[in-house]
Amino acid sequence: MTNGFAKAYRTWRKYRETYDELMRLSNRDLTDIGIKRGDIPTIARKSAGL
After folding, report:
1. The pTM is what?
2. Mind listing the pLDDT tens digit for each residue in 3-18?
């Protein structure tokens, strides 16, 4: 049970780190790397393996 919780926590942390980092970027920076702000949750989920 503890291993499942630890894995879920690591997955959630990876999601939040990616999400937060991308959200800090300006719209111009996001455009430069080909990301729309609305795509950030999907990109963060993929990054976390969800």
Report:
1. 0.85
2. 899 999 999 999 999 9
Q: Please report, as a single letter, which amino acid is at residue 4.
A: G
For residue 11, what are the CA distances in angstroms to 14, 27, 34? 5, 26, 25
Is the CB of residue 48 less than 8 Å from the CB of residue 18?
Answer: yes
List the domain boundaries for the chain.
2-48
Which of 9, 14, 19 shows the shortest CA–CA distance to 42?
Answer: 19
**CA 14/CA 26 separation, integer angstroms:** 21
| DSSP three-state, residue 34 | coil
Residue 27 has pLDDT above 90, yes or no: yes
Longest CA–CA span in the chain (Å) reads: 44
Q: Which amino acid is at 11?
A: T
